[in-house]
Amino acid sequence: MSKPLVSVCVTTYNHERYIRACLNSVLMQTECASLEILVGDDSSNDETTKIVNEIANLNPGVIRHIRNIKNKGATKNLNYLIQEARGQYIAHLDGDDFWLPGKIAAQISFLENYTDCPAVYTNAFCINDDGSAAGLFTNYKYSRISTHELIRRGNFLNHSPLLYRGNLKKFLVHPSCNMLDYSIHINLASHGRLGFLNQPLTTYRVSSRTSIITHSGNYIRELYWATLSSVKYPYATNSEISAGMAEFLRTIFFQAILQKSLSPLSYWLPRILKNAPSGKIIILAQAISAIIRRCSTIVASRIYKKLTGNPMKILYPR
Predict the structure, then answer these.
(1) Domain interval for residue 254
(2) Is the pTM of this model over 0.70?
(3) 194 and 275 share one domain
(4) Is 190 in the same domain as 241?
(5) Which tens digit of pLDDT belongs to each residue from 12-54?
(6) Which region holds residue 210: left if phi is over 0, alpha if psi is between -120 and 50, else beta?
């Protein structure tokens, strides 16, 4: 069996409302002469399995439907797909998101031009669960990203636009399967500066009904913190790690406001201060600065919407 140019790892669970658009968007990447689509169906109990089978039957030899008998969870599901991927390049795509035409071709062209680059991302349109526009994922402007920036700025990369070189997959498969998109980004960046195309060639669904962020927020924060706490020099300096922890504390602050509860702060603040490599005062000052910047962005977005009637939301402004 010949090796495909691109392996696309699609994780899905109860995505009957989204999976058809997701898979069709991959099939529309017509520039790829050799493509395999690995669909990790994590024991869906809705119509997802039926829809995937239908599309797979229409595209024999392209879509491999891997249905788990028991629910593994998102990270174990993805872990298995990465192990099974055979492509020269590997892409990830969540089953409730979709791509725009030309996405894969643009990324392959980038990686061919920058042979030192391990992976490349694109920006993303953000839509609400009903399909209405929600804004852009990030306002990041540069074409290359180092581990230093990923730590200092916090996570501003989306999972579904990711394309990386297949020979790096062995560094992503984790025995504990506790993978998070942030840890994947940092792991790949340890092999060279990442590429970033500031074109919204992916569509990201914000807080869909089955989103792991919506239903497992505390679990995601624990994985994020574990990733951030494990980073050491030379991949980031102490001041950069402190800045990253301050950015994380900023997200906890806004979580407390949304929940109208001090519980998130009382739980996370002592842990963050205890591990702050540059000292408690510095990290608190950095967190306050990050909160002020975020508040300014929110105010500007609301003023823009009031004046124009259009949203100008940036989910992860950097």
Answers:
(1) 237-316
(2) yes
(3) no
(4) no
(5) 999 999 999 999 999 999 777 789 999 999 999 999 999 999 9
(6) alpha
